[in-house]
Design goal:
The protein is of the alpha/beta class and 264 residues long. 42% of the residues lie in helices and 18% in strands. The protein has an eight-stranded parallel β-barrel, surrounded by six helices.
């Protein structure tokens, strides 16, 4: 199998466990190692395992998978918030607080909070206000633990900034996704300038249903814009693959493609 030598870079590349077909599974780390990635973004919980990483056994399984493979736990994500909205379901407040504990235990610094499907915040001022109030309660605990809560949604950069300013904590940032922003009708280049590096915690690199470089996003210009604002940190591959493709070979292509743009 082709190997990819590690080189120094301001960026680190991982993949979401759900995109590897291994949600909250130790097998995600084996696949990531075969691809040549540096990390895995791990789901905090699933519909079948709502306690997720708050279960000591599950947490230890993931910890050992990372240790055994040498692949980092780059961040956590609560994708279940798309089905069980943070804005309206009281169960989610406990999830977020417990995910902070799990992240601290696993050495992850970022937790993605998803706001799509049932949790969509667009044109939902009451929903946005509810999220702000909940984040005001969770943010101090995250800040004390050295954890960042990353908002990923279809909102504009300015709407995200409004939420962050009202929460008033350095522990709340934007989890930026170029494909989502474009699909929502936002100008990613203007948004990157507006947000700047300090308001972005991590990046998703995806081209729904296609390999990177084979869709409609202008990745060379995106790479330039990311470097121009001085962003450094994790980028996570997500849904950057055609249907029924070999995920290892496909993500090796994506890794090579990004290496040329970001000097991996």
């Amino acid at each position: 199998m082709k190997t990819f030598p590690a080189t120094k870079s301001a960026f680190q590349l991982g993949a979401c466990d759900w995109s590897l077909g291994q949600t909250l599974s130790p097998d995600a780390f084996d696949i990531a190692k075969k691809i040549g990635l540096q990390g895995v973004q791990v789901s905090y919980n699933t519909s079948k395992e709502p306690s997720g990483l708050s279960d000591p056994k599950t947490l230890e399984i993931i910890r050992q998978a990372s240790k055994n493979t040498g692949i980092k736990i780059s961040s956590l994500a609560i994708g279940e918030l798309n089905r069980v909205p943070y804005k309206s379901d009281p169960r989610t407040e406990d999830w977020v607080l417990k995910s902070i504990d799990a992240a601290k235990e696993l050495g992850a610094k970022v937790i993605l909070l998803a706001f799509f499907s049932e949790g969509d915040l667009r044109n939902d001022i009451p929903g946005q206000k509810a999220v702000i109030e909940k984040l005001k309660k969770a943010a101090p605990y995250a800040e004390k633990s050295g954890i960042t809560l990353g908002i990923e949604s279809y909102l504009t950069a300015q709407e995200h900034i409004n939420i962050m300013e009202q929460v008033g904590s350095k522990s709340v940032k934007v989890y930026y996704d170029f494909r989502n922003a474009t699909d929502a009708g936002n100008d990613v280049f203007n948004e990157l300038k507006l947000l700047g590096k300090d308001r972005i915690c991590e990046l998703h690199m995806k081209e729904n249903g296609q390999r990177l470089g084979e869709g409609t996003l202008n990745w060379p210009e995106i790479a330039k814009a990311v470097k121009d604002i001085g962003y450094e940190g994790w980028m996570q591959l997500e849904w950057a693959s055609p249907k029924d493709v070999d995920i290892v070979g496909c993500y090796q292509h994506n890794k090579e493609y990004l290496s040329k743009l970001f000097a991996y």
